[in-house]
Amino acid sequence: MIYYLLFSLLFMNNSDLPNLPNYDFTKAWEEVDSLYNNGFPKEAYQKVNSICQQAKQLKENNHLVKAIIYQGSLSLQLEEYGVTHTDKLFRDELKNISSPYKNILHSYYGEFLNNYLQNNRYIINQRTNTVDSVDLLTASSAQLIQMIDKQYEWSLKDANLLTGKTESYKP
After folding, report:
1. Tell me: the pLDDT tens digits for 86-102?
2. Cα angle vertex 146, ends 131, 62, to 5°?
3. Which residues of 95-119 are buried (b: 16+ CB within 10 A; e: fewer)?
4. CA nearest 64: which of 97, 106, 111?
5. What's the rounded Cα separation, in Å, for the pair 170 and 101?
6. 8 Å CB contact between 45 and 74
7. SS3 sequence, 11-23?
């Protein structure tokens, strides 16, 4: 009886991650949209995390970028410290992804920082400059503007990518 329970627990834990070669991203994204539109953002967030893991394992960077953007958006809605979590998410993923996907993430990260600055300008304008601050919660307005500018500059870093065809990058 105990072996049966352990055996079933083993399969229940692996049920979140389907077999890699047969993973259907289109169906998974439709499920995320359905969950979110029907008022289940936590379940949608869990599904996006699963998609992100699959995309990393299968090296499907177009789906990975989409999953990171969804993770950030849902984290902002669901978590008390969603801003710091989303900031860390972008920073971590930018270290591990290659161009042109890295350029796209830099652009979205810049947009995230800009939205944070616009939505919290009153509080941020009361801050003074700190030495080498990269922390969103202590950075001054001038430092955040500098961070935003850098992200947008890095998103345009490789000019050859700007003239290429985009059909192969569609999820």
Report:
1. 999 999 999 988 888 99
2. 120
3. eebeebbbbbbbebbbebbbebbee
4. 97
5. 11
6. yes
7. HHHHCCCCCHHHC
Report residue 109 as tokens.
Answer: 């990260």
Structure-block tokens of residue 81: 């410290």
Q: How far is CA 108 from the centre of its chain?
A: 9
87 CB contacts (<8 Å, ≥6 apart)? Answer: 112, 136
Q: How far apart are CA 52 and CA 32, in angstroms?
A: 12
User: What's the maximum distance between 2 C-alpha atoms anywhere in the chain?
Assistant: 64
* Tens-place pLDDT, residues 9-61: 333 333 444 444 678 899 999 999 999 999 999 999 999 999 999 999 998 99
